Amino acid sequence: MAVYTELHKSFLDELANDYNFGRLGAVAAIPEGSVNSNYLLETAKGKFLLRVDEVKSESEVRRELDLLTFLRKHAFPCPHPMQDRMGRYYRDYEGKCISLFKYHEGRVPIAVRLRPSQLETIGRTLGDLHVIGKGYKKGIDNRFSFERIADLYLSVRDRLPNYFRKIARTLEDEIEYLTRYLEGKLPKGIIHGDLFADNLLFRGEKLTAVLDFEAACRGKFIFDIATAVNALCFVDGGYSLDRFRYLLRGYESVRTLSLAEWDAFPNELRYSSLRFTVTRLHDFFLKPAHGAVRVDKDFREFFDRLRVLRREKEGGMEALLMAMATGYDYRKYQKVKANERLKA
Predict the structure, then answer these.
(1) How far apart are CA 94 and CA 111, in angstroms?
(2) Region(s) of the chain under CATH 3.90.1200.10
(3) Could you report the per-residue pLDDT of 141-159, keeping only the tens digit for each?
(4) CATH class of domain segment(s) 9-102
């Protein structure tokens, strides 16, 4: 269970009063998640999600809540931050920020069971985020840039056990490769950064909410798409070309990828795999649990993807490369650019 901070009853009673919740019913810890502590509150006015930010500073929490408020105003299906009767979106609790959100009905899908229509919906929703986010002019620092991930790996490398030597050599070789070939001059804007199945809620075919904007920042759109592909299109040890096409069909119904983005796609898939391999290794070997029961996600899931992308093992990479090489539609892109000029 990913619960690092326990809440005192006196604090919960104070919270219920400040939010005019009336009688506070059940308060249940939510086991999902590995970064923050989350609780479900049942009140006389309905259900609410309480989040304790375990990692972010106050300024980072404030920026995230500001982004969510902006997205909500543009009808994007994301967490809905609540204000208390004094207009506050968050408050301090034992040196950590506490915030409340409206509870979204829906089920977290199982990635391997996602249907084609759901994959298209996810792609379309990610496209909506990127387009809507163009109107958000405030900067949000990218905590998971390539430079920071490379530094993070250096901090964990010497803590890896001896039997990790082969893995370490692969990661070091990948960092050297990406240093030379990762493209920085690509379309950027607000990205989610962590679009996994467990950050989505569905009711039937309708996507009711995109959750966990913990990693949201200003970054490359293609990295966001690559992360979604790595999370949702890798099944049974390999990449599913059909899943890839459904996801990209949904995305490009909203925003067309440029030729430069298609060209950069394979390396962004590699970087996304490296990023999650390194952060999961770091969390396991260096992040203290402080006596809490911690959720440690298996780094091997993304290391396996990286090995496929490096052509060190079979896994559908060749078919994916062909789809990327032929995915660019020059006529469609020109039409989009012409429409953008007309709107300007």
Answers:
(1) 36
(2) 111-343
(3) 899 999 999 999 999 998 9
(4) alpha beta
